[in-house]
Amino acid sequence: MPFKRYVEIGRIALVNYGKDYGKLVVIVDVIDQNRALVDAPDMVRGQMNFKRLTLTDIKIDIKRVPNKKTLIAAMEAADVKSKWENSSWGRKLIVQKKRASLNDFDRFKVMLAKIKKAGVVRQELAKLKKETA
Amino acid sequence: MAPKDRKPHVSRNPDLIRGVGKYSRSKMYHKRGLWAIKAKNGGAFPKHEKQAAAAAPAEKPPKFYPADDVKKPLVNKRKARPTKLRASITPGTVLIILAGRFKGKRVVFLKQLTSGLLLVTGPFKINGVPLRRVNQSYVIATSTKVDISGVNVEKFDDKYFGKKVEKKKKKGEGEFFEAEKEEKNVLPQDKKDDQKTVDAALIAAIEAVPDLKSYLGARFSLKAGMKPHELVF
């Protein structure tokens, strides 16, 4: 019931609208009730409305508005990238991206693999059914 | 007079703005070295005799003048050339045919003919599409490529695919009602042989890639949830 993810300095957020859609950014300062100063290793530090951000569980240890070098070092220390890629949310996004980039031939191969897997599962199920029957 | 390899000469007088050169007439005279040429030629610029104009054949006055002015057609310098081929279509690309008898079939692109149409083959053994012409507009190019280096497509052109002109028979009323058209739709044997030779090299290349053969044998269709503008082909 209570909030678990707070807007704080060092909170990692996902951009959900605009030019930087899909990027992970760090909140380095709060400007006012609606806006935060955000920064990421590959973008120029700038302001963003909270409505464009979705907070994640990840938090890093930084002081208010660090310089880029410190920020990158802190992100490496907290291992943000691997934490994100191993989280279920991060994994889902990676799978979505992969699916969107599939070729027509790749989609065909995926279809064949699905059919094969379903066949194997069905065989095992049939075996188990036979044993209990 | 001019040597063959003369490069087009760049002006020695750069423009300050359009229409106004940097150097005056006298400066340019000096820059071009006309004084040196004159000195070499003894004080006057060298000139050559005017070539006598070749005698034009005597023109007779025309026999007939039209009463009204005859309009001349406008100048048209356009050249006919084959349709520009999309950059995504290169020899060996797998294409999806979108219309006609073979709609949905995935097919291998061979080359573009002079009429602009694309020469395409199934291969016939895999999906029943023979050597055929197809318009670029009715095709989706996928990013899958097949190795086409072993195939010789030189001999195929638009005339190969044209309709055969039948010799008209002389009038013979009795023959009108007989079933003369029995032999109409048989493919000549040499076309079948052409198909076989083209496909032999192709099928070898196709079987080298796993699943490609069944891919080419299957038809493409849109399923639920597929958005064509978001699909990557």
UniProtKB/TrEMBL annotation, chain A:
Pfam families (UniProt xref): Ribosomal_L14e
Single GO cellular component term: cytosolic large ribosomal subunit
Record has Ribosomal protein as a keyword: yes
Transmembrane segments: none
Domain Large ribosomal subunit protein eL14, first and last residues per copy: 45-117
Keywords: Ribonucleoprotein, Ribosomal protein
GO biological process: ribosomal large subunit biogenesis; translation
Taxonomic superkingdom: Eukaryota
Alphabetized Gene3D superfamilies for the sequence: 2.30.30.30, 6.10.250.2270
InterPro entries: Rib_uL2_dom2, Ribosomal_eL14, Ribosomal_eL14_dom, Translation_prot_SH3-like_sf
Alphabetized PANTHER family for the sequence: 60S RIBOSOMAL PROTEIN L14, RIBOSOMAL PROTEIN L14, TRANSLATION PROTEIN SH3-LIKE DOMAIN PROTEIN-RELATED
Protein family: Belongs to the eukaryotic ribosomal protein eL14 family.
Name of protein: Ribosomal protein L14
Lineage of producing organism: Eukaryota, Viridiplantae, Streptophyta, Embryophyta, Tracheophyta
TrEMBL record, chain B:
Ribosomal protein is among the record's keywords: yes
Residue stretches spanning the membrane: none
Pfam families: Ribosomal_L6e, Ribosomal_L6e_N
Residues of the Large ribosomal subunit protein uL6 N-terminal domain: 3-61
Keywords: Ribonucleoprotein, Ribosomal protein
Entry's Gene Ontology BP terms: cytoplasmic translation
Gene Ontology molecular function, alphabetical: RNA binding; structural constituent of ribosome
UniProt xrefs under InterPro entries: 60S_ribosomal_eL6, Rib_uL2_dom2, Ribosomal_eL6_CS, Ribosomal_eL6_KOW, Ribosomal_uL6_N, Translation_prot_SH3-like_sf
GO cellular component entries: cytosolic large ribosomal subunit
Region annotated Disordered, chain positions: 1-23
Domain of life assignment: Eukaryota
CDD domains attached to this UniProt entry: KOW_RPL6
Positions with biased composition (Basic residues): 1-10
Similarity remark: Belongs to the eukaryotic ribosomal protein eL6 family.
PANTHER family: 60S RIBOSOMAL PROTEIN L6, LARGE RIBOSOMAL SUBUNIT PROTEIN EL6
Name of this protein: 60S ribosomal protein L6
